[in-house]
Structures are given as structure tokens and as C-alpha cells.
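*** Fold description ***
***
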Amino acid sequence: MINSLLVVCTGNICRSPMAEALFKNRAQDRGLDIDIGSAGVAALVDHAAADPVINLMQSRGLDVSGHRARQLTTEMGRKQDLILVMEQGHRQFIARKWPELTGRVRLLGESSGEDVADPYGLPEKVYAHCLGVIEDCMDYWEKALFV
């Protein structure tokens, strides 16, 4: 069992906000008190989630309209029990910049060994596909973390 989880993507306006909302929802459904957040390795600081993200999450009954992008920082990373990244490149970036965090960083798509592709700027159907991939990955992590 973990007490804190950070989901990381590039800009923190597409993939990681979706995963953050889903993890929070699943933890809440199980009555778990886990600190769950998101950040970006090159965040568009203070930007809202992308419109397609807001729409897709609303269709699942989850509100991310108040989300504001945050930059991953040393302090933020050190507070986390687990950091889930969307791409191997994110994992490598964190390992280079903060080697002390390496043991806490895992790939969201670890069960398949695949990255979760960035839908930024693409048609809404690509965002929907991305959300489906994230949900598939979450099934693995839910079983691993929410015991």
C-alpha cells in the first residue's frame, strides 16, 4: 500500500490529469486515503487541462476543470511513494535530473511495456483512445496498489 502517488507526463494538461482523476476516483471508491497528484516534466505551468480532456472526463462524471498544470520539482518528487510516468523518456529524464528518485519511478504502461502516446493538439478521438489506454493501464495498477 502506498500513501502518495504522482502521475507525470510532459505538459501536465492531457495524460496525467486524466490519470490523476481516474486514480482519485478509484481510490475514493475503495475508501482509500492516498495523496494523488500530477505534474509535467515540461509543464505548461498554470494552464488548464486541454478542452478534450475536460470533456472526456466530464462524460465519465469526473470534473478536471479546476486542474492547473504543475512542473515536477525535486521536493514534489521526494514526497512521493510512487511516480508513474507516461513514457520511457520521462523515466530517463527523471533518472538524469533526480537520480535519487529512480527507484520510485515506474511506467504507467508497465504491464504492456508500452508508452502512453501524447494526444496534445490531435483530434478528440485520439484523446479518447489515449484515455482508453490509460484506463487499461490503471486496471494493472489498481490491482497492484489498492489492496
